[in-house]
């Protein structure tokens, strides 16, 4: 088959919504990298300045500018993979003459080390046993507590339209379309569902703000960027319950009056990308998406847009800039996306997990959802558990569950003869919690915030007593430095300086000077950074100093 | 934006800044209102001609009821807001931020000939006592030495990634010649594919040079005169090149013209210049400049003569040509550098003295 010409690709995409990323991917896929000529053609085709486009392309980790780059192996050297041989795989592949490079956590911390080549995720303990591997399913319900999000996920065929419908799928949509849009928003508000992407903003309130805004067309954007290290729960939902996400998005669209929606998916999930494209095609075919959904007269068009490797594109302003083809710096707020989002129009940006909960809540009611939490807590949360633990994986926990129950009863505890030294919260963004306080910790924000951290998107990494916590902190900070967008001074310089202070480069500093510098940088970052990345990164050093001062003293002397 | 005290709306909106209550117009930022009150909020990424960016974070202020400080340049004033522009904990963080920025550059002090805003960083570093040498570590930015263009020095080792250059090029010039490549500590100002400026869409207007707060971008022609001992004197004048009439400040050291800078308050240009006004002032003192008329001799060589002689010869030449070939054999082209009055006189001269409509001007814009 003759490959498509530049003009074919441009004609295919230039009149589509949010065309830049898919057009760049089309060239990247055709040529195996983005050549100068490709960038010239794209700039010309989309009438965008070439220098601007060049800057934007170089922002993304996974757009390759060298021939063969698309297929070259990218080995995860994230915190968890570092502890289990990621660097060794990288070195072995390089020694074999492959153009292997590193990538940050690619959301497979519950499986052997992932290596991305082209559109395939290989995985293995060593370079020798790398092979294409489907993403792991959540383990069978470990707690015998009623689940919401995972209630159907382990059933065979649930990720096909027929299978999803057999499990009751799209019944929520059918009932919603007969109802008044404000009633749906009221139900979601009453359920007290809050954002599961990290910030915890009440979902009903967000939808109401979009619905109340009289500027059109509105959009629903699903944040499927899942870039936080140690977070891989959205991956499980999309791989094994993709139609729940689609149904949740259609309901959100109906509630807010949005005729278009996007799923912004991280680059590192190529198999998920293919699956979602297939599911969307099936849903369109079945009249579940399009001009006249289930003959109700309601119109909603849904598109997948693939990112290109940038953690910051999970931050909603940056995500929207990326979708629009702009340089993906975060936006200044206010205004917020609910009034000025995609193409400056009202937009609800919601996390995958948030949206997937919606059909369940519509089906079973707000009270039912509330009752899933323990004690005064409301609802459930997916936790991605990884690291030094016998059964890493995704768990659906009721809010308020003791951490001990999750770690020891559900996930089997640390490996034989080991004890748990620390866990992270919110992937890496919540920093560490030391063994000193884990005994009484419950998984809910009031408790975790009282320890100066937060649950965020629900990634928990476990470090046992063999681990060097300064090294763990270094790897965490190196991630933030790698992903800092460079917009604001405190984060651009601060993440770099903190990384240097954790890798021994600043060892001529006395412990007192070291601590002062680290604290002053952290204070300025937390208070003045322009977005959550820079505000959260100092939790790493702060918690390191709080729980492991003796390890710091040793490392800096 | 200027506050109109007679406006009803303006009278209704009020904000308290450092204990001082004042009215403001909807849409004004905290920074703009504070500036009117002559508050000295430090900034590095701000240029009032550009959209506020929110990068340097030096302008953060405390707003009552909001936990974290807010960037005053990007945050609009709200009715009833109570703001403190310089409480001690914010001043401390400003110092930290300046120490951090200072730590990424090799050089804080640069010659003022580099550019109009080039002293902003060193001024703030001095004001906040931020030469502590704390936060030492890797430096950022790579100076581009291979770009041999005659106008703009691209000394990115002194760059602090405020992106004023990129933004002025896009927002003011509409040229989009330069961009931010990479991210985080690796960000680098560059043209596409790392090209030299002359292979890019750059028009060498010098706007990026003049907005750069560190002198990372510098006027290559001006800095040739760094070593001259005299102090820089600035004289407000008008660019002689075209009828737009951009205001410039001509910089001299002693008798020597050493550079030109755009006047931010120039009524015609508001801080903008083109390549000519910005970089081509040196014809004034150029050794090849003609100061007296030259008259062509029968052997083809030129001889210096007095004005009277030259004008007489020219008049004779015109009269002969008209007599021999007719009045339409003469065509006048006025210089684009001529102001209105001179252009008018020129067409009057061609029409009245030669009797032809063959008159035009070289400016076709
Ligand atoms: C640095 C940074 C990264 C983020 N990454 C993600 C992400 O990968 N996925 C996500 O859903 N939200 C992410 N967020 C949060 C989003 O900005 C936003 O709050 C969220 O998508 C809103 O959806 P929700 O209300 O359903 O949680 C991130 C925020 C920051 C500051
Ligand atoms: S905090 Fe970091 S990631 Fe966020 S805007 Fe600033 S530099 Fe970019
Ligand atoms: S000189 Fe003018 S056109 Fe050239 S890069 Fe600077 S601002 Fe842009
Ligand atoms: S070159 Fe100057 S204006 Fe441009 S980003 Fe660097 S410091 Fe700012
Ligand atoms: S997959 Fe490697 S650290 Fe998460
Ligand atoms: S002036 Fe406000 S952030 Fe730089």
Secondary-structure topology with pairs:
The complex is a heterodimer of chains A (557) and B (365).
Chain A lengths: L5 H8 L6 H12 L4 H11 L3 H10 L14 E3 L2 H5 L2 H10 L5 E3 L9 E5 L2 E5 L6 E2 L28 H6 L4 H7 L3 H11 L11 H10 L6 E6 L8 H8 L1 H15 L3 E6 L4 H16 L15 E6 L9 H8 L23 E5 H13 L1 H6 L8 E8 L5 E6 L2 E2 H8 L9 E5 L7 E3 H4 L3 E2 L1 H6 L8 E6 L4 H15 L5 H14 L8 H18 L3 H5 L1 H10 L1 H8 L1
Parallel strand pairs in A: 1-2, 6-7, 6-9, 7-8, 10-16
Antiparallel strand pairs in A: 1-3, 3-4, 4-5, 10-11, 12-15, 13-14, 13-16
Helix pairs in contact in A: 1-2, 1-3, 2-3, 8-12, 8-15, 9-10, 9-12, 11-12, 12-15, 20-21, 20-24, 21-22, 22-24
Chain B lengths: L7 H5 L1 E4 L2 E4 L6 H7 L23 E4 L6 E2 L10 E3 L3 H17 L15 H8 L24 E3 L9 H10 L5 E3 L6 E3 L16 H5 L5 E3 L12 E7 L8 E7 L2 E7 L12 H5 L14 E3 L5 E3 L2 H19 L6 E3 L5 H15 L4 E3 L4
Parallel strand pairs in B: 1-5, 15-16
Antiparallel strand pairs in B: 1-2, 3-4, 3-5, 6-9, 7-8, 10-11, 11-12, 13-14
């Amino acid at each position: 088959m003759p490959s498509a010409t530049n003009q074919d690709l441009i004609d295919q995409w230039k009149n589509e919504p949010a065309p830049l990323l898919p057009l760049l991917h089309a060239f990247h896929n055709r040529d195996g990298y983005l050549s100068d000529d490709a960038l010239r053609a794209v700039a010309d085709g989309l009438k965008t300045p070439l220098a601007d486009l060049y800057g934007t392309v170089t922002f993304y980790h996974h757009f390759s500018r060298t021939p063969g780059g698309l297929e070259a192996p990218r080995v995860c050297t994230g915190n968890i993979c570092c502890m289990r041989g990621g660097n060794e795989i990288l070195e072995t592949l390089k020694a074999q003459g492959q153009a292997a490079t590193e990538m940050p956590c690619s959301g497979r911390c519950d499986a052997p080390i992932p290596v991305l080549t082209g559109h395939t995720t290989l995985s293995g303990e060593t370079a020798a046993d790398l092979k294409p591997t489907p993403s792991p399913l959540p383990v069978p319900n470990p707690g015998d507590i009623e689940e919401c999000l995972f209630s159907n996920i382990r059933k065979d065929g649930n990720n096909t339209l027929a299978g999803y419908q057999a499990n009751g799928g799209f019944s929520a949509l059918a009932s919603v379309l007969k109802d008044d849009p404000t009633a749906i928003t009221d139900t979601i508000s009453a359920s007290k569902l809050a954002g599961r992407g990290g910030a915890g903003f009440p979902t009903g309130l967000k939808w109401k703000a979009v619905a109340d805004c009289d500027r059109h067309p509105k959009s629903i954007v699903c944040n499927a960027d899942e870039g936080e290290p140690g977070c891989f729960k959205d991956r499980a939902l999309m791989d094994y319950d993709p139609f729940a996400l689609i149904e949740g998005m259609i309901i959100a669209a109906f509630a807010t009056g949005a005729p278009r929606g996007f799923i912004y998916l991280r680059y590192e999930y190529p198999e998920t990308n293919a699956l979602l494209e297939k599911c969307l095609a099936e849903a369109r075919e079945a009249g579940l998406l399009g001009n006249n959904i289930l003959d109700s007269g309601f119109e909603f068009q849904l598109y997948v847009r693939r990112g290109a490797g940038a953690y910051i594109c999970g931050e909603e302003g940056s995500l929207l800039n990326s979708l629009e083809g702009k340089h993906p710096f975060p936006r200044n707020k206010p205004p917020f996306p609910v009034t000025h989002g995609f193409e400056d129009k009202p937009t609800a940006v919601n996390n995958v997990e948030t949206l997937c909960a919606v059909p369940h809540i519509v089906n079973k009611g707000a009270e039912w959802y509330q009752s899933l939490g323990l004690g005064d807590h409301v609802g459930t949360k997916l936790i991605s558990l990884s690291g030094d633990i016998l059964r890493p994986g995704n768990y659906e926990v009721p809010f308020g569950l003791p951490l001990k129950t999750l770690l020891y009863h559900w996930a089997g505890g640390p490996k034989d003869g080991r004890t748990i030294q620390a866990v992270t919260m919110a992937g890496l963004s919540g920093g560490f919690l030391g063994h000193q306080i884990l005994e009484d910790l419950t998984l809910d924000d009031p408790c975790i915030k009282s320890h100066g951290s937060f649950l965020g998107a629900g990634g928990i990494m476990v470090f046992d007593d063999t681990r060097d916590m300064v090294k763990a902190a270094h790897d965490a900070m190196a991630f933030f430095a790698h992903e800092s967008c460079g917009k604001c001074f405190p984060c651009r310089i601060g993440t770099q300086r903190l990384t240097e202070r954790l890798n021994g480069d600043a060892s001529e500093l006395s412990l007192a000077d070291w601590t002062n510098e680290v604290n002053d940088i952290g204070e300025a970052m937390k208070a003045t950074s322009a977005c959550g990345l820079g505000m959260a990164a100092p939790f790493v050093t702060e918690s390191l100093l709080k729980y492991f001062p003796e390890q710091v003293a040793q490392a800096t002397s | 934006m200027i506050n109109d005290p007679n406006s009803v709306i303006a009278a209704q909106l009020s904000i308290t800044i450092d204990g001082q209550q004042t009215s403001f117009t909807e849409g004004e930022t905290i920074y703009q209102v504070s500036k009117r009150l002559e508050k000295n909020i430090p900034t590095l990424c701000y240029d009032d001609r550009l959209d506020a960016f929110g990068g340097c974070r030096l302008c953060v202020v405390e707003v009552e009821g909001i936990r974290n400080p807010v960037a005053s340049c990007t945050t609009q004033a709200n009715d009833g807001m109570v703001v403190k522009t310089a409480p001690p904990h914010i001043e401390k963080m400003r110092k930290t931020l300046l120490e951090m920025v200072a730590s990424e550059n090799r050089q804080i002090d640069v010659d003022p000939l580099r550019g109009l805003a080039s002293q902003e960083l060193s001024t703030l570093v001095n004001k906040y006592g931020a030469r502590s040498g704390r936060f030492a570590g890797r430096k950022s930015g790579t100076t581009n030495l291979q770009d041999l263009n005659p106008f703009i020095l691209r000394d990115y080792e002194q760059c602090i990634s405020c992106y004023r250059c990129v933004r002025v090029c896009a927002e003011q010039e509409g040229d989009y010649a330069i961009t931010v490549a990479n991210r985080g500590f690796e960000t680098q100002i560059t043209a596409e594919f790392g090209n030299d400026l002359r292979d890019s869409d750059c028009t060498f207007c010098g706007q990026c040079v003049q907005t750069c707060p560190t002198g990372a971008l510098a006027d290559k022609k001006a800095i040739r005169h760094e070593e001259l001992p005299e102090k820089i004197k600035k004289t407000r004048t008008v660019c002689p090149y075209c009828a737009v009439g951009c205001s410039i400040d001509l910089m001299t050291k002693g008798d020597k013209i050493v550079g030109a800078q755009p006047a931010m308050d120039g009524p015609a240009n508001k801080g903008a210049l083109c390549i000519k006004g910005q970089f081509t002032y040196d014809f004034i003192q150029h050794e090849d400049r003609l100061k007296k008329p030259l008259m062509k001799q029968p052997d083809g060589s030129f001889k210096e003569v007095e004005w009277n002689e030259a004008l007489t010869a020219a008049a004779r030449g015109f009269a002969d040509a008209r007599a021999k070939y007719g009045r339409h054999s003469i065509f006048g082209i006025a210089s684009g550098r001529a102001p209105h009055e001179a252009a008018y006189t020129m067409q009057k001269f061609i029409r009245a003295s030669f009797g032809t409509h063959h008159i035009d001007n070289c400016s076709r814009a």
